[in-house]
Amino acid sequence: MDQLSAMRAFVRVVQTGSFSATGREMNTSQTTISKKVAALEKKIGVKLLARSSRDHALTPAGAKYYQTCVDILGELDEAETEARSEVASPQGTVRISAPVAFGRILLAPIMAEFFQRYPDIKVDLRLSDRHTDLISDGIDVAIRARQLEDSTLVARHLFDNPMLVLAAPSYLDRNGTPKKPDDLTQHNCLIYSGMQEVNIWRFTKEDKEHSVAVSGNFQSDNGDVLLEVALTGMGIVILPIWMVESHIKAGRLKQIMSDYLGQNLPFNAVYLQSRYTPLKVRCLIDYLKDKLPST
């Protein structure tokens, strides 16, 4: 048995969640991948995957062995890269997960310069406002504006993410302008449904925290959609400054309650905790930290 090949197969089965997908990726059959994993289990004398007719999951021993395999294979890949050149040249595909608006507004414009700097790196960008699981989705780096929820992950701060309260001038002309958080209870608020506390908006003024339960006739789990609805004059919205700055300058949106600081959920680059972080991942995160806004 080629143990390294079996370890790579095992890691990709865990990351893709599928023997058949791993087989296609490695240009072989589902049966061959299954045999590799079975041979690996036999060699080390431990059951790595608990299989059923429809699914499989890591056993406790398999979870520990998976992380060990990731570390070992990563170090081998790094050693091979360094052996090819006196100066390691980052290469390979980096799989990134990011919110839709973040990818459109902030990532897309800086990709050309990234590829000029690192011509041997490829990027597979998956855009979704839903939470992604790095292992099961095979993600190298996830861009998230939330607190780190898993001790197996590492978060690298990219930039702060101040939220602004906004409305179209037409809405304010019809309904008046709220001055303080409690005034929002009398307004139609456009709600982002991707938060844990969907209807609670939080603010800070002079180090004092304020929270208010808001309501409205429209909610969405997509920030782009909320922005477009707000531009029609339908209600009040709370969005990050990088999404709305151009609309404020053009007069299409007006910031309100500017003396209250909206909740700040800094953007982080999140990746799996490991003794080894691939060079391609380190280069990408360093680049994002350098190029993204510092606000």
UniProtKB/TrEMBL annotation:
All residue ranges annotated as the HTH lysR-type domain in the record: 1-59
SUPFAM superfamilies assigned: Periplasmic binding protein-like II (SSF53850), Winged helix' DNA-binding domain (SSF46785)
Pfam families given in the database record: HTH_1, LysR_substrate
Tagged with keyword Transcription: yes
Keywords annotated in UniProt: DNA-binding, Transcription, Transcription regulation
Keyword DNA-binding: yes
Domain of life: Bacteria
CDD domains: PBP2_CrgA_like
Signal peptide: none
Protein family according to the UniProt entry: Belongs to the LysR transcriptional regulatory family.
Record's protein name: LysR family transcriptional regulator
